[in-house]
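Suppose a colleague, Dr. K., hands you the sequence of a protein chain of 272 amino acids and asks what its three-dimensional shape might be. Before reaching for any lab equipment, you can write down a predicted structure in token form. Begin with the sequence itself:
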Amino acid sequence: MSDHKINNTSEYWKEMDFDVSTYTINWDTEKAKRYLEENEADFICQYVLLANKYGILLPHNIKVSDCLREDVLKLIRTDQTIYTEDWAVFRINKLYAHNKKLLYHSHIYTQRDSIIQLEEIVNADLLITYHDVVCNNDDSTYAEPVTLLFFKNYFYITFEADTFFEVLSNRNANFGVDNSETAYLNTPRFNSFLRDFIILCFEYGATDFDFEKLGYENFSEQGILFGNEVVYYEDIYDLLPEEHKYKAFEEIQVVLDETHYKRYLEDKKETK
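The predicted structure, expressed as tokens, is then:
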């Protein structure tokens, strides 16, 4: 049976029933952790630019401005977290701190009333926006499209909802729902963000990258599949109509050094 094309596909997004594939970037040595700690402000500045460039995992405690570095340094100075001995002193989680929780939002193209529009989505399951949470004190359970956590020496990226999937198959739909129209606008941005984020981590001392394929077939080590392949945003950006181009992609420049990541990939290939 072919997938059903319907209007308002965003209303069919659903919180995951079980864990999905995850991406983990590690700092496995004391030397690596120390390098990340010593260059914390530089890393966070680059990360903020990267998140805003793609509209994925937007920090809400710091905005892109001419004072970005000063704002990052202030955030670091005013952090009151007490770290145990085996934790890297690294405050990226503070970018997402909100009412004693971590709050994630991404710029997501939704389809409501047959209209595709860009929104800051926090809860993809209930289509709750960032504005709903911050301004209306909505404390709903979050089914964020994507989440990021920094633990004692590693980043962990996973998903709470099926927003980025080309086809939806969940409890909201008794049939496969064609989600390709919005996924085409969202998924390549995530894939480019993931790739550049991993490169950034290796630039700042990361030692290993791990991809775990769990419950879904539409994941790969390079990102989420669209049409059985990983599509990056730069591959489709010029093909998009003006109203669907995420303009920050061309406005924000982030210079990345791929040297360490490429060396890691070469070493990994040789050990197989």
